[in-house]
Amino acid sequence: MNKKFEIILIFSFVFILNGCGYNKLNNTKNNTIHISEITLLGEQRIGYIIKNELLLSSSPNGENNLKLKLDIDKQKFIKEKSIRDKVTRYKNTITVELLIIEVSTNKEIKKKFTKDTNYVAYDSKSRTMSSERHSIENTAELLSDNIKDFINLNYKTK
Fold first, then answer.
1. C-beta separation of 31 from 57 below 8 A
2. In b/e form, how buried is each residue of 14-44, taking b as 16+ CB within 10 angstroms?
3. How many angstroms separate the Cα of 139 from the Cα of each of 2, 20, 61, 123?
4. pLDDT tens readout for residues 86-122
5. What is the DSSP secondary-structure string of 77-103?
């Protein structure tokens, strides 16, 4: 009796959750945007990383045809110094100003995205530069994810 009740409870729970209407927001199967053009200003290397990620999420038969303009700025700051006045950590701040232009209506949407990352300054300059490059690439990928989510949320509701 107890086993039957548990099995019925599990199946009913699964049935209820299945019918709740849950849907992933960043579902790539029903992509409704098509990015026809991306213009990059500022830091080109970071821009290419973001551009490639955005183009992967674009669908050639999307309903909303968009042009994007990305103005990318990177700043490097000293975060920590040792007692001997030697730099031990740096901080990178990457700012992306996004301008979305709908081709059909010429409607413009502006949004600013900012991410900070820290990285260690090693004794070897090449190792420090490698750490900086890795930090910048990771930050650019995070920013591109934020931009994709923003665009998808704006155009899923339309």
1. yes
2. eeeeeeeeeeeeeeeeebebebeebebeebe
3. 53, 35, 30, 23
4. 989 999 999 999 999 998 898 999 999 999 999 999 9
5. EEEEE-TTS-EEEEEEEEEEEEEEEET
Take residue 16 and report the two structure tokens written for it: 């209820």
User: In whole angstroms, what is the distance from residue 87 CA to residue 103 CA?
Assistant: 48
DSSP, collapsed to helix, strand or coil, labels residue 22 as coil
Tell me which residue of 92, 93, 95 sits closest to 131, measured CA to CA: 92
pTM over the 0.90 mark: no
- Name the percent of the chain in helix, strand, coil, to the closest 5: 40, 35, 25
